[in-house]
Structures are given as C-alpha cells and as structure tokens.
Amino acid sequence: MNDNTNRFIGYAINDLLNHNVSITLRSKKYLRDITDGWFSSDKKLKFVCNLGDCKDLRISIFLHEYSHFIQWKTKSHYWIGEEYNNAYQEYFEFKGIENQLKYQHLIQEVEQDCDKIAVNLIKKHMLDIDIDQYIRESNWYIWMYNIVSELNKWPNMRYINMQEMCNICPKKFIEKSRYNRLPAKFLHQIDKTLLIKSKN
Q: What is the CB neighbour count within 10 angstroms for residue 91?
C-alpha cells in the first residue's frame, strides 16, 4: 500500500467513527466470499471488513464497503429508498423467480452505484488501485447475481478463478440493459467451474 492508501484508510475510519459506526476489521486468510465485508444500517450502523493477507484486493473490499457507507451518509435513493432497502432481504429468501429477478435488478443497481462512488474515491485520493481491474471486478459481481439466482445460493468461491473471470469482463461499467445479458465466454467459464466442482 502507498502513503495515499494508508491516509485514506485513516480518513475513512475517522469518518465512520464520527458517524457512530461500529467497526470490525478482521485478519483472516482470504477466502473470497460474501462475508469478507459489509456495511449495514439496519438498527445499528456496522462496518465489517476482512483485511487479512492479500492487501491489494482487501483494500478494494474496504473501499467498496466504505462506498456503501457513503450511499447511506449522502441519503442516496439507492440505499434509503424503501424498495432498495428491502431488496437484499427479499432477494435472499428466494421466494420465486418473478420477485427474485425484480430484487436482483435492484441489488445490481445498488452495487454498481456503490462501485461508481468507489472509482471517484480512487481518483480523488489517488489510491493505489487499478481502476480498470476494479471495474472488471465490479462487472463480474453484477453478472454473478444471475448465477446466484440460477443456483439459489452463492457458488463456492474457491472453485472460481477470479482473474480468468475478470479478464472476460469489460473495463467500463456495463449498462443496466446488460445486467442480465451474460457473454458466452462468461457462461462457459461458469459452466467449467461448476463442472470442476461436481467432480470434487
């Protein structure tokens, strides 16, 4: 991490504390799953991030979750709007395909807005984060919600080669109209991943 990144982390932590956010920074080995970080404004403000060994990627996670905090702090409609606010809970109950796809799209909007905030922060604070790579990862995340809906769960991340997947994703944020239009190469990589899993 460069000095700018260290200063940004200190700045972000102070910002969180000034807004009475409970902060938990973990140091577990990186497993790349959905529990590596989150920000919650439900009942009590909570910020959790796994800052273990793989510093560069974990700083991206820290940045992403801090950007969710910014959504809350600035009263973004993506975060506080009633429909968006209920999206995560409703989506992960997997009640049915019609509602599932509706809430999937709402979550995709929240997450992409979050990552656009993150990219602006990278530029503003001159962080040592590759913007093209960050956007590729963001697009991967957006497209993966289609796979989650298909499987009714998050796939086991240890079977997924993140770099191969991100290389398939574009370096510009995908349009909303393409949220659910996965490229053939992306689907092929997912099929290969699930095939490897089935043999283990």
A: 21
Nearest-CA neighbor of 90 among 158, 12, 134, 149? 149
> In terms of DSSP bridges, do strands 37-40 and 46-50 run parallel, antiparallel, or are they unpaired?
antiparallel
pLDDT tens digits, 96-150: 667 788 889 999 999 999 999 999 999 999 998 999 999 999 999 999 999 888 8
What count of other Cβ atoms lies within 10 Å of the Cβ of residue 159?
14
Question: DSSP string covering 167-190, please?
Answer: HHS-SSPPPGGGTT---HHHHHHH
> In Å, what is the CA distance from 144 to each residue of 8, 150, 161, 166?
29, 10, 13, 11
Whole-prediction pTM = 0.88
Sorted by where each begins, the domain ranges of the chain are: 3-198
pLDDT bin (cut points 50, 70, 90) of residue 188 is confident
